Amino acid sequence: QKMSRAAERLRLLITHLDRPPAAIAGASSGALSSHSTAAPYTFGNNLLTPEQRLFYEENGFLLIKNLVSEEDIDRFRREFERICRQEIKVPGLVVMRDVAIAKSEFVPDQKAVSKLQDFQEDPELFRYCSLPEILKYVECFIGPNIMAMHTMLINKPPDAGKKTSRHPMHQDLHYFPFRPADRIVCAWTAMEKVSRQNGCLVVLPGSHKGTLQEHDYPEWEGGVNKMYHGVRGYDPQHPRVHLEMEKGDTVFFHPLLIHGSGMNQTQGFRKAISCHYASGDCYYIDVKGTTQENIEKEVKEIAARKYAVGDEITLKDTWAVRGRLVQGARISM
Ligand SMILES: CCCC(=O)SCCNC(=O)CCNC(=O)[C@H](O)C(C)(C)COP(=O)(O)OP(=O)(O)OC[C@H]1O[C@@H](n2cnc3c(N)ncnc32)[C@H](O)[C@@H]1OP(=O)(O)O
Ligand SMILES: Nc1ncnc2c1ncn2[C@@H]1O[C@H](COP(=O)(O)OP(=O)(O)OP(=O)(O)O)[C@@H](O)[C@H]1O
Ligand SMILES: O=C(O)CCC(=O)C(=O)O
Ligand SMILES: [Fe+2]
Ligand SMILES: [Mg+2]
């Protein structure tokens, strides 16, 4: 007899996801069996060295040098340039401008683009999400069933003088209505040298061990980009690490890791490409009554304006339509 979808999901929750790590560690087979109480954030499959595994467990991120080839990155860059020149139209793609120039005249050039979001329908850019060298690491963090949920190409502009090129400190889980957090990971690849000068990523090591915090727009004089929420009450005294990276270097990080990026003090557009992956056996949650209600409201307002849809569209729907299976099985996502 065929189980209903809801029943099937419940079965998965019971057998895999909601069991305490100890129970999972004791399981005899299955994707989660190599997961242990001692190392709840990673799977042991002989790719990560014990040192790398411990580093991710302790810090919530892992930097792999020289992972993506120069040739692939140059291809992503050329595709990005074609999009900027409006030579191709990609369904669902969001082209974002920095708030400092949001109301100025449009020019078909990278100057007018601070970020692309949702490039899952662009086969060339989406190749990034399926690169075997990326997926083999992703599997170490979330297991063999892999969904590409959120895609971005960030083109951080030279700061226009108001510090709007900064990205406030945040936890990516704030944006995601799916769980568990430990079965989500971001891959972020530098498309050129990124340094403190051009606004590299800044992370708070170990912050992935905390809980999801309240997020709001930071009170910044020069303005903040749409939906760039920051953790409320960010403590600038907390020890931070600047991730300076070379072209092709890739950092994998946990969705609770507090991170942001500094202002771009150079004249170049600092480029990075990223994908957030979630396990195919993650499940959606209702964010009503949680700290994520404020972001849900903004997403719904934008969707209503852009696609003329009403309240029948849930936050879950907006993610379910963007997610793409890249390895294994799409079980409950
Ligand atoms: C792990 C996940 C991490 C994250 O996702 S971080 C957050 C990422 N940000 C987002 O997802 C925002 C995505 N952006 C968008 O949806 C669009 O770019 C956005 C902001 C709706 C604007 O798009 P469009 O409607 O196509 O643009 P438009 O030129 O017609 O402008 C419409 C109104 O929006 C304003 N706007 C445009 N870009 C902005 C910006 N960067 N920050 C703040 N406001 C911005 C623009 O001024 C205009 O305002 P008004 O209606 O004329 O008052
Ligand atoms: N009030 C705030 N709330 C959230 N995030 C913040 C806040 N103030 C700064 N940040 C973030 O902290 C990180 C560090 O930024 P900041 O510009 O202070 O230093 P930096 O560029 O890393 O280093 P420096 O300018 O000292 O070379 C960035 O991600 C920035 O967006
Ligand atoms: O500046 C960056 O590239 C980081 C952006 C980021 O953290 C995000 O969009 O969630
Ligand atoms: Fe982020
Ligand atoms: Mg700075």
Automatic annotation (TrEMBL):
Source organism superkingdom: Eukaryota
Pfam families: PhyH
Keyword Metal-binding: yes
Pathway(s) it belongs to: Lipid metabolism; fatty acid metabolism
Top class in the EC scheme: oxidoreductase
SUPFAM superfamilies, sorted: Clavaminate synthase-like
Keyword Transferase: no
The protein's Enzyme Commission number: 1.14.11.18
A single GO cellular-component term on record: peroxisome
Molecular function via GO: L-ascorbic acid binding; metal ion binding; phytanoyl-CoA dioxygenase activity
BP term (GO), one: fatty acid alpha-oxidation
Keywords: Dioxygenase, Iron, Metal-binding, Oxidoreductase, Vitamin C
Catalytic reaction(s) noted: tetradecanoyl-CoA + 2-oxoglutarate + O2 = 2-hydroxytetradecanoyl-CoA + succinate + CO2; hexadecanoyl-CoA + 2-oxoglutarate + O2 = 2-hydroxyhexadecanoyl-CoA + succinate + CO2; octanoyl-CoA + 2-oxoglutarate + O2 = 2-hydroxyoctanoyl-CoA + succinate + CO2; hexanoyl-CoA + 2-oxoglutarate + O2 = 2-hydroxyhexanoyl-CoA + succinate + CO2
Co-factor requirement: L-ascorbate; ATP; Fe cation
Matching PANTHER family: PHYTANOYL-COA ALPHA-HYDROXYLASE, PHYTANOYL-COA DIOXYGENASE, PEROXISOMAL
Family: Belongs to the PhyH family.
Listed name of the protein: Phytanoyl-CoA dioxygenase, peroxisomal
